[in-house]
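User: two proteins, same treatment. go.

Assistant:
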Amino acid sequence: MEKIELRGCSENELIEICQKIGLKRFRAIQLFQWVQQKAVRSWADIKNISKSDLETLSNHLHFSVLNKVREQRSKDGTRKYLFRLEDGETIECVLMDYARLKARDRHTICVSTQVGCPVGCAFCATGLEGFKRNLSAAEIISQVLDISQDIQQEDPDFQVTNIVFMGMGEPMLNYDQVLKSIRVLNQAQGLNIGMRRMTISTSGVVPKIIQLAKDNSQVGLAVSLHAADDSTRDKLIPMNRRYPLSELMEACREYSRITHRRITFEVALTADNSKPAEAEALARLLKGQLGHVNLIPVNPVVGTGMERPSQEKIVKFAQVLEDAGISVSSREERGTDIDAACGQLRRQWEGKLV
């Protein structure tokens, strides 16, 4: 009998399992709290459940913990982790510690949802290595739990406040496991992270955008837009050939109609695509859409050949959008000194950066 991954179980799933194997309901609640609140990594770490009950549980459930291979720390408080999975594959995730800034008590973890990525965006290091497999809900949740436990050894009061699903991989292509991980992380007996404090980022998987609106109207949505015309976006995001801008923007309008929530549109700015004409085209595309534009100076990544624009270009680009009535901000750079772009640490570890 194949064992179930314990860290991917909801409280109700554990209750159902306990009832099937003859254990009381309260045991399931205790177990869920140990796993999700206290982030234990083994059966030996659980103290208030009898050894006989733990042995019974271990016959049906499996701890899928991560092995920290490497950690990088930025001067701004950002930490980047490389974790090895049980099958030997590696993934990255990033802690963005905004609590160092005055009046901003926020700790955001950016998690991966796939090993590699099948989308192959032109500016992303992850896609350069291709796609291996989807992560399970347990492997997604484990990134949050293991980073929390790691930092709590230094700061016992540390708590994750926000989660963004925009690390390695396309979350919408692993939709079911991503949604399950969100629901588990939201549960009151676990980390109790609010739905509105979690955001899924997509390169534009149109059917899943609409499904997300219908399945869960509270989770935030970010769309990697990056260009306002199909010919340019085809080169930057191959997904656009399957779901062109006309279909993507219609899905975004439908999402906002159902949820009444604004979408964050991510725009990676390079030295080449940061001209006022591009900003004007973007303003026309987003006219009437409930949303906010987040400008992201592209991270320098070996193998992409892309360079970031000057600060002057970024300011002018933003001004064009503001003048057109589009809400806009420029992403605060985090972890640039430790190569915080998705996939960079993994490629470096595997010896593929020169």
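Protein 2:
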Amino acid sequence: MSDAIADAKRALRAELRERRHAMSPAARAAAAEGLHAQLNALVAARSVTTMACFLSTTTEPDTHAFVTDAAARGIRVLLPVTRADGLLDWAVATPDGEIAEGLFGLPEPVGELLGPIAVNDVDVLVIPAAAVSPDGTRLGWGRGYYDKTIGSMEGCPPVYAVVFDSEIIDDIPRDVHDQPVTGIVTPTQTLTLAPTGR
């Protein structure tokens, strides 16, 4: 990655992080409710029976209620567990599943680990992002876990990045290893983007 791209990403992440920290509790609650509805509509529209999702941190759009609800309705939801080698293990969500602090302080499920290839069988991936552009360029938080996961999948299913509405940004710095997404989910809308050729 060139220094210019790395610096631009760092600056944008810092700005987005600050914006997220400044959100009011009322705005967070409204966003959580909206995101839950959008994700329910997405899995219904795509007849999803198995999916990958993530457990949000306190500043991300809240996915916890959706994950609990989806698992209770019989959707097989795989949740990521970070590994020191840069890969993701996966565990199956349960409605009353225990959550612990994983690497980097992220909320992660406690339970049997299925290994990195378990995600190859999902109908859709729902992943975190700092921002996404309308052409599918995703800005993550800089550790590369999801770029590695998406880049290594044969026949990758649709990938939807979750962001707040204000985080759909036209101009996101992009490097060669950055994997595009096929859709964006916000608290008010779900966008399926034009194919990128991946």
